[in-house]
Amino acid sequence: MERELEELQSTAEEALQRLTDIRAMEEWRVEYLGKKSKLTQVSRQMGQLGAEERPLVGSLLNTVRTHLQTAFDDRQAALHRNAQQARFEAEQIDVTLPGRVVKRGAMHPITRIIEEIEDVFLGMGFQIAEGPEVETDEYNFERLNLPKDHPARDMQDTFYITDSLLLRTHTSPMQVRTMESMRPNAPVKVIVPGRVYRRDEDDATHSHAFTQIEGLVVDKGIRMSDLKGVLEQFAKAVFGPNQAVRLRPSFFPFTEPSAEVDVLCVNCGGKGCRVCKDTGWIEILGAGMVHPNVLDWAGYDSKVFSGFAFGMGPERIAMLKYGIEDIRQLYQNDLRLLGQFTRALG
Q1: At 131, which CATH number?
Q2: 305 and 271 share one domain
Q3: Same domain, 63 and 113
Q4: What is the β-pairing status of strands 127-128 and 188-197?
Q5: What is the edge-to-edge ordering of all strands in the sheet holding 281-290?
Q6: Per-residue pLDDT tens for 79-123?
Q7: Backbone torsion region of residue 209, taken as left when φ is above 0, otherwise alpha when ψ lies between -120 and 50, otherwise beta
Q8: What are residue 210's DSSP bridge partners?
Q9: Where does the chain bind Mg(2+) (predicted)?
């Protein structure tokens, strides 16, 4: 049995030295040191030995087991060191290589315009409000003087969710919601930026999802001249100090009187060119005096209070200010376009 133990030790040591894979070490341990290993099988034969031979074989058995366990631990540690060294070499960084330039981000032109417009109106004492994009038919139409059979509903092709729920077609529902939340307090001075949705075919000047900024002022003695003054201040702040506005009669169900608002052509300064079709003016928004019905339904007595409202599209402002001819470029996330608007991020 002594010779059998010596041969087992020699075989185990040779097999151990041939191992180069850490995962194979566990297979070796099970084969030579586990509960069902060859060494355990030898120890079970000791009961067949005589009383004098048994202590000697037992001592040798323990010596072999201890030797193999030590060899296993040393070999496993060596393989771990080799694997770690190989990983270090594979992950080594050449610090002499030139660094990779990190590209700076850019604020999207629509976001930039919205923030610029917000700053202008905040400076005039307006507050900023937000409203739901999923709106009720009541607030999107009926409380804005658009009953269910009103022909003006055809002006806005709507995404309906149910008979009474829809994706809002404008930010104007916030006129009513804001007045309801603030009544009977005055003045009401608020702008509402947000996304709106219409079933338009996407082309160079239309999109099915776009942004609007609604403006509302309600107080005693508000006049059309106040509306023009606010819009002139806005136009000069956004387009330059030499800018002017022009109001043309129009129709919106929730304002009376209503007007389309033009600014001097940003391309020719009012002289007439291809962009403004030689008129010298470009339309930028719609506005008007809040309809008495809308005031009354919101809880403000139209015989005491008056107000004005306006709605503009930041995409339209951005296209005019930055010379963008196709609205789709604002939604394609083309880095070649967005990179032109890079500015330091604070």
Answers
A1: 3.30.930.10
A2: yes
A3: no
A4: parallel
A5: 127-128, 188-197, 209-219, 306-312, 281-290, 255-264, 245-252
A6: 888 888 888 888 877 778 787 887 777 788 899 999 999 999 999
A7: beta
A8: 196
A9: 256
The Cα–Cα gap between 19 and 15 comes to: 7
3-class SS letters over 32-51: HHCCCCHHHHHHHHHHHCCC
Query: In terms of C-beta density within 10 A (0-12 exposed, 13-18 middle, 19 or more buried), how is residue 191 classed?
Result: buried
78 and 155 fall within a common domain: no
CA distance 325 to 163: 37
The pTM score is 0.67
Domain count of the fold of the chain: 2
**Domain housing 237:** 109-339
Residue 99 lies in a domain: no
Q: What is the pLDDT of residue 323?
A: 83
Q: Is residue 35 part of a domain?
A: yes
H or E element in which residue 239 lies: helix 224-239
- Name the nearest CA neighbour of 174 among 135, 119, 126, 148: 135
Taking residue 266's Cβ as centre, other Cβ atoms within 10 Å add up to: 21
Q: State whether 217 and 137 are in the same domain.
A: yes
Our separate counts of H helices and E strands in the chain read 11, 9
Q: How far, rounded to the nearest angstrom, does the alpha carbon of residue 124 sit from its chain's CA centroid?
A: 30
Distance from C-alpha of 274 to C-alpha of 280, rounded to nearest angstrom: 10
Tell whether 24 is covered by a domain: yes
With respect to residue 51, please indicate whether it lies within any of the assigned structural domains.
Answer: yes
Phi, psi angles (nearest 5°) of residue 250: -150, -165
Asked if the model's pLDDT at residue 175 lies above 90, the reply is yes
pLDDT of residue 45: 65
pLDDT of residue 345: 39
| Residue 256 counted as an annotated binding residue | yes
User: CA 83 to CA 106: how far, in whole Å?
Assistant: 44
- Give the Cα separation of 156 and 171 in Å (integer): 13
Give dist(CA 57, CA 315) in Å, integer.
93
Q: What radius of gyration do the chain's Cα atoms show?
A: 41
Please answer whether residues 324 and 292 qualify as being in contact, where contact means their C-beta atoms are separated by less than 8 angstroms: no
